[in-house]
Structure formats: C-alpha cells, structure tokens
Specification:
By secondary structure, the chain is an alpha+beta fold. It is built from 6 helices and 18 strands. The protein is globular and about 65 Å long.
C-alpha cells in the first residue's frame, strides 16, 4: 500500500512476496481457494524464465499459440526472444481489454512438458541434470502437501526455505515495485567488510552497488505499440541478518532503513530507485548479536533469492580479501578473521 498505491488489493500474482517459499505458498493457497473453480492439488511448483531457457537448451525451440519460442537474442530488448514474446503478449499496449493476458504461460508449460516426455532417451541425462541444477540455483521451487515429500525437499534445499543457522547469516531480498522488467538489465555487487572489535563484538558493513547500463524505454501511457521493459527500478529491499543484530547506520535509501523481525531473523528494510543508465549504492553497518571467541572462525550462511542472477560477492576483513564468488546457490563459509 505504501509503495504500490495504484494496486490497492493483493493479487494472486503477487503472493510470492515472502522470502520464504512456504509462507508464499500458504498465501497463494488462501487466494487460490477464493478464486473461481479451485481444484484439489498435490503441490505447487514455481519456476522462472531461466529454467525455461535452460530447458530450451536441451529440448530445442518450443512452439505454442502459433509462436516458436527460442533463446535467440532480440535486438529490440537486448534479451532472449522468449522473454520478448511473453512480454509482448502480456503487456504490449492494445486498443482492447486483454483477458487472461498471462494465460500463454500455461500453454507454454504444457508444450514444454509434452516435448520433455516425448524426448528420446539419449536426452534424459541432460534433462535431469538441467532440472537438478535449476533446483540448486532456485530457478525451480517445490512444495508438496504430503508431509514426507515436503520434508524431503526441505532437507535437500529444494523448497526455497529460509533456514535457521548458528552463526552469521545474510539474505538479500528485493521486489521490483514497477511494471517494467528492469531486473533484466541491472547488475549488482555485494561487498561485506567484517571487523572484530576489542570486546569481541563483530561489526559488519554491507554495501550493495547497482549498475543500470540500459537506456530507458518510453514507458509513458502515450507510447504506441512499444514495450516498457527498461523503466525505473523501484526496489523494495529487505536484508535478513541474525536475530538481534543492531543497526548502527545506513545510507543510499530514499527513506531511512527500518529494523523489525520476520521469519526468526532481524530484517532491515528500505526503498531505492535506480534509473536507466544510472548507478546506486546502498550501505548499512550493524553489529551481530553474538561475540566471537579468540581463535574461532565465523560461520556464515548466505542464502540466494530465487529468480535472481548470480550476483558478485566480496568479503573483506582488515583490508584482506577473505572470499570472492558469484552467488549461484546458497553458500556456507567459515571465515578466519585473524
């Protein structure tokens, strides 16, 4: 209501708002049961376009509603053809009211499943490898109503849960509160500087740097026939850290960062905008709720947000680089701060 004032109701398409997939699923089910003609279901599978593009790599182009969907780059959007066609179908301005504007997704998924099961046996190792990789990268998330099945996928981290962890913890969760698809073009780097004080307190400085090299599309209401993909990035950001962490200072957000508790974590939340061909930087400094004994390593879990790029991460202490990597999946580290 605060950041999307023109959307006064919670729509089922926005029910994935919680960083924890199980919480989002419960919200989805509540809304689904109030929709017309809900059916009994065994579970819910969520996927993003990266999974579809990876499957196209194995299966080849997929045809649906008279269109051949491919991974080929489209010059108009500097994005894969499948994304361009889906956005045209859903969001391209027309002179009439679109009903079921995202119904094409269901048809596309049916065609992809049919092509998968019709594939020759020689391709199945690649198909299974792609599915497992997508589960690990959180491009594919699973939920089952059967408790044993749900427990199994949670145990192997295929269920999109935010986990409890004995040590330091970081999860950055961002929601693009705009119709445009700015996430296609923005790159992001996360830097952490960890400092151990004389009293054994641990202070952390987290800096998130955004770069938006793409020029902006014409996103005005008067645009004729074009797509609004590269618009202003309106980012509601939540940073999950160990419960009891204390915020010292922050900068870079349009409103002051606030602290609260959610999912048994402390969460720092704020709002930033990044314009096309622009940059932005968010910084926050906080202390962890525990001390580190001498000669002890600092355990750290970093959980990836589903559907995001493999953003770059850099961890320093005392001017010394501890780790540098792309976060393609959840990662656990043991950091020596000496």
């Amino acid at each position: 209501l605060k950041y999307l004032p023109n959307v006064p109701t919670l729509n089922i398409r926005d029910s994935n708002f919680s960083p924890d997939y199980l919480a989002s699923v419960y919200q989805f089910e509540e809304l689904y049961q109030s929709s017309s003609g809900p059916k009994d279901i065994d579970g819910i599978i969520s996927l993003d376009t990266r999974f579809v593009m990876d499957m196209i790599n194995v299966l080849g182009p997929i045809e649906a509603v008279g269109t051949k969907f491919t991974k080929d780059e489209v010059e108009e959007c500097a994005c894969p053809q499948i994304i361009y066609e889906l956005e045209k179908y859903a969001d391209q301005p027309v002179a009439f009211e679109k009903s079921g504007r995202k119904g094409i997704i269901g048809v596309l998924m049916q065609q992809m499943m049919a092509k998968t099961f019709e594939a020759p046996k020689s391709t199945w190792p690649n198909i299974l490898s792609t599915v497992i990789s997508s589960l690990q990268k959180k491009d594919l998330l699973l939920y089952f109503k059967d408790e044993k099945s749900q427990g199994a996928v949670e145990k192997i981290n295929f269920a999109g849960r935010l986990y409890e962890f004995d040590g330091d913890y970081l999860h950055i969760n961002e929601a693009n509160f705009a119709g445009a698809k700015s996430n296609l073009y923005i790159t992001q780097e996360v830097k952490q500087v960890i400092k151990k004080g004389k009293d054994d307190n641990i202070e952390k400085k987290v800096t998130i740097e955004y770069k938006y090299p793409r020029r902006g599309d014409n996103c005005s209401l008067e645009r004729k026939g074009g797509l609004c993909l590269a618009g202003i990035y309106r980012d509601f950001i939540r940073i999950y850290v160990p419960k009891g962490s204390t915020l010292i200072k922050s900068s870079g957000t349009e409103i002051a960062i606030t602290a609260s508790e959610d999912l048994d974590k402390t969460v720092f939340e704020g709002f930033i905008t990044v314009r096309p061909q622009g940059v932005a930087k968010l910084t926050l400094t906080y202390t962890l709720p525990f001390k580190l004994a001498d000669n002890s390593v600092l355990p750290l879990m970093i959980q990836k947000q589903p559907g995001t790029n493999a953003n770059g991460y850099l961890i320093n202490t005392g001017g010394r680089k501890l780790e540098e990597f792309k976060l393609s999946a959840d990662k656990t580290l043991n950091l020596n701060l000496k």
